[in-house]
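Worked Example 4.2. Consider the chain below.
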Amino acid sequence: MKVEVEAVDGSVTTLEKITELSFSQSSDAACDSLYVYFKAESELGEIVAVRAYEGKKKIFNGLCDCQRTSIGKDGFEIYIYARSSASLLIDNQAEPYTYCAPSAKQLCLSCAQPLGFTCKLPNIYTGEKYQVAQGVSCYGAINQFVYFCTGYNITVTPDNEICLPQLSENCKSLNEYKILSLKSIINRSEPITQINFKKSLSSNGYGFHTKAQYADTVKINKSQYVNLASFADWQRDYTVLQKLKKSYDSYKLIEAVVSGFANESLFQRFSYSSQEAEYNDYALVEKRYICDSRGKRTRLTLRKIIDVKENTYVD
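Applying the procedure from the previous section yields the following structure tokens:
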């Protein structure tokens, strides 16, 4: 992996003596992250930007958050930590505003384009009002709207394009990699069986219900009560449904460590089989590439794709 840094004065340096590197991506995090320990014969000045490449492909484009330099007998030992360019959307607040029948592209135009981002989102819109409250980040203003409508968080590419990730159509075999370790995790503490909710303050009780029928097949019994009176009409059903589905995100996971760099996109589907076990249709939701004295490896976290078979009914 090639890493280059850009200083405040515009000079660009390719790092040669990297002693440790970690590159992380997660579907639940707005920003990718990269930290690097390296040695240099001279100071590099104040670093503002960091870019990483796998072959000719740019896989990270970010801004330096922290830089530490130690002076030793053999020169300088430097540590840098950077977040991807999506950090600009996180660190800048959106103007408080109530939009009438907005689209995701309109929100990008208002909140992201002035910061140098382009919109590659599909045609996502509502015919209702959408309020961006005081103190909400530019990322939050766009992402909350998109998540309400789709159930997915937006992602920002190394080319500063705002996109909507989707599950891959194809399903790859994890067996193609040299697997150093693999473990399966079942977490039954998070999944919700049923959400009972009311839509207005005037409602006498929680007469609306959304149930995950899948929970019955795995004998999970957990109910919650939610008051949706403060939400806009169009957001209420989305809120309940996404809360129910999200509760199954960490229910069944695979954590695998593979040799080398796994150049895979988030939400790529995988299956794995061996004489001992078989795991079908898991989605990649987090990866961390590590290069240190122990070698090069990628830690992959994969989430079981589950159809919760939701059903909404009224008393």
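The chain is about 15% helix and 45% strand. The chain has a mean pLDDT of 95. Compare this with Example 4.1 before moving on.
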